[in-house]
Amino acid sequence: MGDDKKYKLIIFDLDGTLVNSVQLARVSFLKLLQVRGIKVKNFDIGPLSGSPTVGILKFMKKKYGLKGNLMDLRNERRRHFFEMIKSKNLLFPGVENTLKKLKKKYKIAVATGSSYGTMSQILPKKIMKLFNVIVTIDDVKEGKPNPEQLILILKKLKINSKKCLMIGDSRFDQIAAKRAGMDSIGVLTGGTKRKDLLKAGAKEVIENVNKLNKVI
């Protein structure tokens, strides 16, 4: 992946990349159906895993007949999620130390499909303070795979896309990075298969973010 001088900025996805929240998020969407008496077999948001909540809700309305205003459903889903993560430490093991080490060499940022409110419930304040820039879904019109979040971070830090590396667990992270003109590395902690991450544009796929120091 080049020497230490190749990149000036590393952008991280949040859910499934830095925090172990993907399965809990999935269950919170399923809860929306369950409280309405909608029974489904093999509930799956499949290819939308890693995309903004509103997109997943639109998918659920069409596939499962979920009724209701999108914003009301979004808030309800959030309540279910917050209840499940209460008092839980979702940060993947070793992430804090890895971020501290990387920060000595690079600027670091977060681009997440979660809202700021959700992110602040998931990510400890001491971790949030490590990042030079944090961009949530609240800051843009379109989430990943649209590259808007990544481009906004580049503008804020005044760094060329060729000097940036995106790290994410989903296909959408890799696609967004490619569209923004930057390299990306996939991580397997969110459940997406290696071959799918590579197909979406990842230059390399590693087990978790703690392996970054060995490949950049």
Proper CATH architecture of the largest domain: 3-Layer(aba) Sandwich
Distance between the termini: 5 Å
Helix-strand sequence: EHHHHEHHEHEHEHE
How many strands appear in the DSSP assignment? 6
**Portion in strands:** 5-15%
Kindly provide the radius of gyration, computed on alpha-carbon positions and rounded to a whole number of angstroms: 17 Å
Q: How would a textbook summarize the main sheet?
A: 6 strands, parallel
Which overall shape is indicated by the principal axes computed on the Cα atoms? globular
How many distinct folded domains? 2
Q: For the record, what CATH class of the largest domain applies?
A: Alpha Beta
Please tally the helical runs, counting DSSP H or I stretches of 4 or more residues: 9
As laid out across the biggest beta sheet, the strand order is 3-2-1-4-5-6
> Which class of secondary structure composition applies to the elements?
alpha/beta
Classify the helix fraction into a percent range.
40-55%
CATH homologous superfamily identity of the largest domain: HAD superfamily/HAD-like
What is the arithmetic mean of pLDDT?
93
State the CATH topology of the largest domain. Rossmann fold
**Which residues form runs of ≥5 with pLDDT under 50?**
none
Structure description:
- With 216 residues, the chain is of the alpha/beta class.
- The protein has two domains: 9-20 and 90-214, 3-Layer(aba) Sandwich (Rossmann fold); 22-85.
- 40% of the residues lie in helices and 12% in strands.
- It has nine helices and six strands, in the order E-H-H-H-H-E-H-H-E-H-E-H-E-H-E.
- The protein has helices at 22-34, 53-64, 70-85, 95-103, 116-122, 125-128, 148-157, 171-180, 194-199; strands at residues 9-12, 107-111, 133-135, 164-168, 183-187, 204-206.
- Strands 3-2-1-4-5-6 form a six-stranded parallel sheet, with helices on both faces.
- Strand 5, helix 9 and strand 6 (204-206) form a beta-alpha-beta unit.
- Helix 1 (22-34) crosses helix 3 (70-85).
- The longest helix is centred in the middle third of the chain and has 16 residues, at 70-85.
- It is globular and about 55 Å long.
- The model has no long low-confidence stretch (mean pLDDT 93).
